[in-house]
Amino acid sequence: QVQLVESGGGSVQAGGSLRISCEASGYTLSPNCMGWFRQAPGKEREAVAVIAKDTTTDYADSVKGRFTISRDRAKNILYLQMDSLKPEDTATYYCAARRGFFCAVEADQRTYDYWGQGTQVTVSS
Which residues does 98 contact at the CB level (< 8 Å), separation at least 6? Predict the structure, then answer.
């Protein structure tokens, strides 16, 4: 059974940095696309960044230049390095994986096959 477990969330002041991780287990085949999503209270869940098996990445406009997604395929860990954090980055962050080849932030979230339980990131001003 595939499991995705996020860690590394916490509280940080605006302008600070945080790295969150997602450890995957139970795969028979490594997924083609993995991504980070976030949901703030009262808002819809949105895609933040995705990375394909060939390491191609895509980012939401709101985080371009500040966030970096990476993937350690040998260890089955997905990372999101978040720099220059803003209060509007406050949300629960989820990692997800999909077998499909299309890997972009505009991909339909319903096409993701596996989801983690989320980790909270709070940015104070």
Answer: 31, 32, 33, 34, 35, 107, 111, 112, 113, 114
